[in-house]
Structure of DNA-directed RNA polymerase:
Amino acid sequence: MAYEVYIDNIFVGYVDDANKFIEEFKEKRRKGIIPYFVNIYFDETRNVVEILTRKGRILRPLIVVKDGKPLLTKEHIEKLKRGEIKWSDLEKEGIIEWVDPAEEENLNVALYPEDIKEDTTHLELSSLVIFSIATSLVPFSNRNQSARLNRGVRPQRQAHAIYSLNFHNRFDTDISILYYPQYPITRTFSFNIFKDDYAIGQNVIVAVMTQEGYNIEDAIIMNKGSIDRGLFRSVYFRSYEIERLRYSGGLQDEITIPDPSVELYRGKDKYKNLEEDGIVAVESFVNPEEVLVGRISPPRFIGLTSESIATGLRKKDSSLTTGSGEEGWVDRVVITESNDGNLLVRIKLRDLRIPELGDKFSVRHGQKGVLGMIVDPSDMPWSSSGLVPDIIFSPAGIPSRETVGLLLELLAGKVGSLNGRYVDGTPWYGESEEELRKELLSLGFREDGTETLYNPLTGDEFKVKIFIGSIYYLRLKHMAKNKLQARATGPVTLLTRQPTEGKSKKGGLKFSEMEHEVLAAHGASILLREMYSSDDTTIYVCEKCGSLAVEDNIRNRVYCPICGETEKISKVKVSYAFNLLLNELISLGIWPKLKLDYKF
Ligand SMILES: [Zn+2]
């Protein structure tokens, strides 16, 4: 039987012996006659040979196994260490080859050398290769539940840090710089590779215990003394920009302090930080909704209202302002030119961010939580040596999440900080729990990492030993100050007349099913009605036929389009969204009938 051969899904010919052909092909690739990125495999469902050369396939390296033995030997590794050979030499010699997911289908890959059997074709370089770059930075991650690993990775990307050494010259939006970033005590092998970019948190002393209930539901308690000494202190930057636009007819915006005669003038107070040139002064403090750059736009000729014609054409204020809740010191002002050749002003605001209630923190094991309480150092528990924890973490967060890696990092961090060394927490290959326990014991501590702590409220010993150690904590970019928002009245959407959504649009707070249940459970029915009355409207319903009645304000009468003027037309208070639904149904040719039941 002959087998069809395809290159990138294009038929090229037949071969008699598919296996022999594939073997010869691979042999030539290992010798360098065929490029290393060309893959070949036998498609068992279609009984054809496929050769793949296209870009976009993901290749990964594997050690070639021949006659039950991996081609990579100890000699190779020694030579690599001494720098006598390079990775590329291993590729050239056919010891390591790159396979894509399709070719992998035909292979039999062993994870460890001792797993190699007769039919094994390749050996994995290391069990660590299943981790991504970010995941490989989590210490003892092989002890964590896999879903927690994915969650542990995200905080590392959101952590406050020094993301770039030239952050002073950059105009990024929404950036936080940590005052005192540290390297972690417990590290993995990949830390050495990404060392320059991996000071994203601080090593803190954590006690795993409950304290007065303020660390309920993943919340953490922080020591005020630590915060005062600069723990997790950071600076927040936000950038703004405005252009001096040109319009048709030679008209142009003007960057200046607007005078009260312009349309949409904001009041003298809002312009108080502007210098003569209409641009805010460096190092002045700007409050929310104050002007950063004053700009006047020429009157627009399209969309004129009768009012504007009557009052004459006026210039319009189109200044750049801070948003609601946005404040800070002016850190930098740059006057430059945009791509279109217009004058461009860029402003950077700086705001000091000291940890406050509601700010988000996380360890690298997917255990995130908000700051629930800031406690004076005198009200924090202490150990017999006088050590006061920086953070109190609830033990209730451990059993359900199965983050054993977190407990191990606490232990390893304790050993590391007591012994003045870094601990290797590389998954599978790092320091073992037994070794760490032994070392802790030799340092004069209990081997399980627990200690006697004293109750700050009574001065007594806690009856149980408290697990306390050092761990790498991250401050995440979600801060209470950026999210705080409330509203009494404000803008509504045009279509549904319901309040707008989102902080930037001064939106209403969402009150949905679960919140509804809470009020219902308390029997607060009138309050509940009020909650849903944000788009109240009155409609008229004909009780005879159930259709919407027409309110004629000009002739001052109400009538049913079907039954005409009748006595039985009632006023009903409904939400405007419901009225909209009725009207949309009518527009579809559906006749909604309302059956009124109860009146009061
Ligand atoms: Zn009717």
